[in-house]
From TrEMBL:
Lineage: Bacteria, Bacillati, Actinomycetota, Actinomycetes, Micrococcales
SMART domains in the cross-refs: Iso_dh
Family annotation (Gene3D superfamilies): Isopropylmalate Dehydrogenase (3.40.718.10)
Pfam families: Iso_dh
Domain Isopropylmalate dehydrogenase-like: 6-346
Keyword field: Manganese, Metal-binding, NAD, Oxidoreductase
Origin superkingdom: Bacteria
One Gene Ontology molecular-function label: 3-isopropylmalate dehydrogenase activity
Protein name: 3-isopropylmalate dehydrogenase
Family annotation (NCBIfam families): PRK03437.1 (NF002898)
Amino acid sequence: MTRSHSIAVLPGDGIGPEVVSCALEVLDAAEQRFGFATERSEFSAGAGHYLATGELFDAVEPRLRDRDAILFGSMGDPRVTPGVLERGFILEMRQRFQQAANVRPVRLYPGVPSPIAGLTPERCEMVIVRENTEGAYVGRGSTVHAGTPNAVAMQESLNTRAGIERVVDFSFRLALGRRRRLTLCHKTNILVAAGQLWQQVVAEVGERYPEVEVDYVHVDAMCFHLPLAPERFDVVVTDNLFGDIITDLGAVIQGGLGVATSANLNLDGSAPSMFEAIHGSAPDIAGTGRANPAGAILSLALMLGHLGEGDAARAVEAATVEVLGGLPALSGAEMGLSTPQIGTRIAQIVRDGRADASLVPDSLLGVLASLEPSRL
């Protein structure tokens, strides 16, 4: 009987439909090569849909909840007030579907240039795990005397032991399947209450994983160490706000936003996980063929690994790396290939079985090794 997976596809705005189209072409090739099937349902969501209907996450939630996974393009448009889509759709999805861990691989692939002089792939291979449902992004805040010289704004950051513990335990299990080193990134000397809770949880959970070495780095120091000594880090766990910032710094180090990928993981199987490139909608280049679809295709590889299609995930990653290494530039007209041409080339390598596994000896599947305790 053919293995089958139910996938929700949200192309979104700007370059989202273009890069998702490439990812789906690669998915077609992976299905043909590795003998599984996907039932795909595409949903309208994002700025264009919101402007036409006023609908946000509420409208689509029931139709997404029973899917095995979500492949997400991008959202954003200058015509929509900042925060409307981010809070009304993306954060709503993360919180309602309890996508507790935002997992961001930071790895420099062979042939991909980094702005860090002398950086090699051997020195840059880590995973940053960001708590994805709490912190400063819970939306708790208020403003009084708005529009006057006496305006006061208050913004809360919420940290619960349960929320911290589930993402810390996941990070320890992830480290156990990798190089067995975990770093907590926070600002414990200033954010004393939240920092102490994070440190306490890391210390207590760490007792269950004595094989894993534990380290701590202030978030400001992390911005120094990350570009200069990325080899210091294996798995980094951090809170929502700090993770949002340092993962984008990591993306720059690994070659830019166009090649960076992410997984928003529900850790108990109660709702679907979501997989997306992190480059945003880039409306200024939408429709020009200048967007690099690698981030979306590598997100597809993460999704395939999550769904248990390990061979397909490795082939997709290896094919993507092979094509990336041959591009003269990673974005813009200088790439040498258009957006759809890159997708077609990667798909052909996957379909023909020509993906060179030596390009990714430590596959992205290592990121997902501890998604469930049974997978260790």
